Amino acid sequence: MFRHHNGRMGWVSWGNRRRRRDLRHPRENLFLGICVAVTVLAVVGAVNRSLGGDGGQPLLLLSVPGAVFFARGILYARQRSDGVRISENQFPEAHRMVVDAARELGLPRVPDAYVVLGNGRLNAFASGHGFRRYVAITSDLFEIGGRLRDPDALRFVIGHEVGHIAAGHASYWRQFGVSVANVIPGIGMTLNRAQEYTADNHAYAFCPEGVEGLRVLAAGKYLYRHVDFADIADRAGTDQGFFVMLANLLSSHPVNTWRFHALRDRSRPGRVL
């Protein structure tokens, strides 16, 4: 993506930045700013209290940058030491998906990818440590692309996680910047929901035909093929009310009805609140 010469590399980079901006949920940067402001105010307050001779909680708060760094390092070490690395020799079809997603979404470097033991959990995530970025997919979710023979669904999952990396969600400074806000109910979670919509937009741009694979989140890996995606999306307009909004507010991901509706109706961004 970045090997063009004759002065064209700048144009390609600008094109990638513009595309990422178009794929980003319009409310994401607003909530990111709020979360960073909360963290900055908390840290500044802790510094002032510490300089004033107050120990205890201020010093604990000032340890957050190091805590975030070590938590990321330990998480990465666990994937490397316990997981199965996706490579050209091991799960080569999935490796090709990761490479294709990285190129399609404009990453200068292909992230590492791992299959980790799921024990029934359907999950995937993206993170990093230092300059490394990686995605991890639980074995139960990974099976939809192999044993259950739905490669497009797996491509969508991989596109979603690589999309998190392309959007900058796996950055250390970003995760530190929202660390304090994440412990306040409703604030950090709201940013996270906007980020999930952003990652869905990247996945849709990479593999739109795999969008209905998200039915696995509603019915599991064995029943999802029998689920009507449109029916769940339609319920976003009928299954509403205070407690639905509260359930969404307290969740790190948009509720399925809203999320499915946003993926079906591409004319407007998904509902965050």
TrEMBL record:
UniProt entry keywords in alphabetical sequence: Cell membrane, Hydrolase, Membrane, Metal-binding, Metalloprotease, Protease, Transmembrane, Transmembrane helix, Zinc
Lineage: superkingdom: Bacteria
Membrane topology according to the record: Multi-pass membrane protein
Pfam families: Peptidase_M48
Cofactor note: Binds 1 zinc ion per subunit.
Cofactor(s) listed: Zn(2+)
UniProt xrefs under InterPro entries: HtpX_protease (IPR050083), Peptidase_M48 (IPR001915)
Subcellular location: Cell membrane
Residues of the Peptidase M48 domain: 90-170, 173-266
TM ranges: 29-47, 59-77
Classification via CDD domains: M48_Ste24p_like
Family of this protein: Belongs to the peptidase M48 family.
Annotated protein name in UniProt: M48 family metallopeptidase
Species of provenance: Nocardiopsis rhodophaea
